[in-house]
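TOKENISE THE FOLD
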Amino acid sequence: MERTLAIIKPDAVQRGLVGKILARLEAAGFVILAMKMVYLSKEDAQRFYHVHRERPFFDSLTSYMASGPAVALLLQREGAIASLRELMGATNPAQAAAGTLRHEFGLDVEKNAIHGSDSPETAAWEIPFFFSGLEFRER
């Protein structure tokens, strides 16, 4: 079993899409080990997205992620990282395959409804950013 982090981004929370996204995740075989609503400060968002610090979209992305509540999820299933990436679709919703979360719920490259870890190394860093060992158990 593999674990990954997902974040339902502020635009999707504000548009009332949390339930629909959770239902799609569960239908795809993900087990939700932990979930919580979070309110990132600009500084929190900058720490979380530190790998993009030199990218031109860094300020906009971190401001957006601090603009409202988001829902952090610790997910588990076989091949969780690759499966979530496939279910999410391309970063740009206009280029995402039909039936993917970003195609259905994303507005643009930034407001694309959901974040997911892109590698085991990234997941290993991202999961404890949001969840301590006290917040979930093995299943």
